[in-house]
Amino acid sequence: MPDVNMPRLSDTMEEGTITRWLKQPGDKVKKGEVVAEVETDKANMEIESFSAGILEQILVVEGETAPIGQPIAIIGTGANVQQAGAKAAATPQAQQAVAVTAAAPEPASATSTPAPVSNGNQNGLIKSSPLARRMAEEHGIELTQLKGSGPGGRIVRDDIEDYLEQQRTMTAPAPAAAPTPAPVAVPAVKAATPTPVALAEDDEVVSLSSMQKTIARRLTESKQLVPHFYIGNDIDLTDALGMRQKLNASVGEGGVKISVNDLIVKACALALEKFPEVNSSYRDGQFILHKHINIGIAVDVPGGLLVPVIRDANLKGLRTLAREAKALIAKAQAGKLTPTDLDGGTFSISNLGMMDVSDFNAVINPPQSAILAVAASRKTFVPVDNQPVLRDIMHVTLSADHRILYGATVARYLQEVKRLLQNIYLLLG
Amino acid sequence: MAEISFRQALNETLRDELTRDENVFLMGEEIGVFEGSYKITAGLLKEFGPKRVVDTPIAENGFVGMAVGAAMLGLRPVVEIMTFNFIVLAMDEILNHAAKIHYMFGGQTPIPMVIRTPGGGGQQLSATHSQNLETWFAHIPGLHVVAPSNPADAKGMLKTAIRNNNPVIFIEHLGLYNTKGDVPEEDYTIPFGKAKIAREGTDLTVISYSRMASLALEVANRLEQENKWSIEVVDLRSLRPLDKETIVNSVKKTGRAIVFEEDWRSYGIGAEIAATIQEEAFDYLDAPVKRVANVEVPLPYSKPLETAALTGARQLLEAIDELAPRRRRR
């Protein structure tokens, strides 16, 4: 009887939390039908069944977390229907009965997470030692999830123990995926042992969601590993706002309006063409220059923050950028982003302008080397020909990785962003 | 407890047993006046006289046959075959008489005899004088075959062999005669069919016997000192009966096994051990069982070629390097 197993939905995924069961024990399940929704470190995804039958048993209830490969439900003939809540004691079956809606990305070569393929798997035969098979069975591990380190890719005890150790120590998932052009491994950071927080009686303890755990871990890594430095500038947005108004006035029914942020995305992307070193990553004494300019935009979502990516932003027109950004933001807020939407950013923008922020510094999103913090634009008197003139001034701060970026480079890059935004027709090119 | 050589342990044990039981007597080529080619019987002719220490003609088939007859009539002959290589001349007496008479004649006469003989290469004795033929005998039901690796075991097992009512092939090793070890002074026996964990370990099991067991122990100790791997060494001591339980339990613990043997690899002791492991510990195996044995050639006389053909510590180390797990267990 086929199990539905927790699928690997992204290359960094280690575990998933069931957010919702769409089918209940006793329900008929068609092949390809969505049975559950799962929250991974990146996104909420749907799990489809590979087989048809009756959902007999739910092994991982809503809100519970299971490592990839663990059976989460059993689909059968309907003879053994059991109500939800039974613990996952079922023996794992050899087949993986799950497909995913979103195409899982290619395994990143530089991450340490075991890739689900190349375990000597030929003609469906997985090479594994008898001991490894026995251990896998005892621990409910799906051998297809492991990569064998023995001769000819044979899965051996070491691999099972590695996997178990990973399961034990991994409270938060692995580093987020590296950008498409050149994956960059984020070295594991040993966080300083934190002093435990003393609990007052009326304190409420809330477990972090997968996403929150990922954010916590990755930003800790970033602040510990990446020497940040910050450079600010004031940008006069008066002309840009004027142009935006004209563009949006003529947009018509159903058209997409261009936001200030879209203008900033475009300006940053074009400036990156001129300063490729800012569109880069640091890796083990190497400077990796990314060919594609993929801009991540920080999106406020309930219980956290997501950074979907607009690919090749330098090549796209303002309307296209606006349409894509709008779609990504909507998906983010609906919890529908896929790993593909989130992977591969090379530069990020965090915009808190709409919240009337005067200025702030953002934390770099590794392995990227820079992030632009955008504050609100304010009506400010500035001297023009020694006369005070009221202009829309926006403060921006760029956080940069000092291992590969230097003050002058970043200052010039910001000047270019400023030049583009202050000469707004350049963005239309 | 005194530290004595393997040779001395054998000599003293023979003296003990000659003294203890007047039915025990020794036979062999040059064991009396010449005191043995390897001096195992030194002083015994003088002490016990020519009735108890009998020099024989160079006629293995004949005097092994005599020993079988003597055993049938209640004596306890301890025969020395000068080297293992000469035992083939007495094969019919061993295979068809010593091993079968007790069975074929309805249990009327047990055959309480011992054949002591040294095997092993490394002495430049060339192809016909450097062999390890233990497999031939371990294959035969009705025989006991033992091969101790140290003086203390040699003493305890030779006593067991002499007091045992079955024919025993007691295999010595030329390379062990001068090795020393602590030997308890009291009278003790070591039961057959009981392997010894010479050294406990967690990463990998090396199963061996005779001189290779003592070599394996050295290698394992060295690897421990170098903090490389924790090797468990199982010294079989007894090839027939074979202590399957100790082998299987050790492999269940470590998941990986090497059989280290000085015979030829094909159809060797290692083949039997490997088969036993896969039969009884299959689900515990993390890798195929490895055999480290001699190169399958007649042993050369030339020293460099002989060295190349014999297995040894280097070959064992290579095999351990190949087979050891990535993760150490402690």
Kindly summarize this structure in a few lines.
The complex is a heterodimer of chains A (about 425) and B (about 325). Helices cover about 25% and strands about 25% of the residues of chain A. Chain A is built from eight helices and 19 strands.
User: Class of the largest domain in chain B, according to the CATH hierarchy?
Assistant: Alpha Beta
- Please write the CATH class name of the largest domain in chain A: Alpha Beta
Q: Reading side by side through the largest sheet of chain A, how are the strands ordered?
A: 10-19-18-17-13-16
Number of strands of chain B: 14
Number of domains of chain A: 3
As an assembly, this protein is heterodimer
Q: CATH superfamily assignment of the largest domain in chain A? A: Chloramphenicol acetyltransferase-like domain
C-alpha end-to-end distance of chain A: 60 Å
Shape of chain B: globular
Q: What would the CATH topology of the largest domain in chain B be?
A: Rossmann fold
Q: How many helical elements of chain B? A: 12
Estimate the global geometry of chain A from the Cα principal axes.
elongated
Low-pLDDT regions of chain B: none
Task: State the share of residues found in helices of chain A, binned by percent.
Answer: 10-25%
The helix-and-strand class of chain B reads: alpha/beta
Strand/helix succession of chain B: EHEHEHEHHEHEHEEEEHEEHEHEHH
Percent of residues in helices of chain B comes to 25-40%
Order of helices and strands of chain A: EEEEEEEEEHHHEHHEEEEEEHHEEEH
The number of domains of chain B is 2
Topology of helices and strands:
The complex is a heterodimer of chains A (429) and B (330).
Chain A: E1 3-5, E2 15-21, E3 28-29, E4 34-39, E5 44-49, E6 53-58, E7 65-67, E8 71-76, E9 98-100, H1 130-139, H2 157-169, H3 210-225, E10 228-236, H4 238-249, H5 260-274, E11 280-283, E12 286-289, E13 295-297, E14 299-301, E15 304-306, E16 309-310, H6 318-334, H7 339-342, E17 347-351, E18 370-384, E19 387-401, H8 407-422
Parallel strand pairs in A: 13-17, 17-18
Antiparallel strand pairs in A: 1-8, 2-4, 2-7, 3-6, 4-5, 5-9, 6-8, 10-19, 11-12, 13-16, 14-15, 18-19
Helix pairs in contact in A: 1-2, 5-6, 5-8
Chain B: E1 2-5, H1 6-20, E2 24-28, H2 44-48, E3 53-55, H3 60-72, E4 76-80, H4 91-98, H5 101-104, E5 114-119, H6 134-138, E6 144-146, H7 151-163, E7 168-173, E8 180-183, E9 196-199, E10 204-208, H8 210-225, E11 231-235, E12 238-240, H9 244-254, E13 257-264, H10 269-280, E14 290-294, H11 303-309, H12 313-323
Parallel strand pairs in B: 2-3, 2-4, 4-5, 5-7, 6-7, 10-11, 10-13, 13-14
Antiparallel strand pairs in B: 1-8, 6-12, 9-11
GO biological process, one term (chain A): pyruvate decarboxylation to acetyl-CoA
GO molecular function (chain A): acyltransferase activity
Keywords (chain A): Acyltransferase, Lipoyl, Pyruvate, Transferase
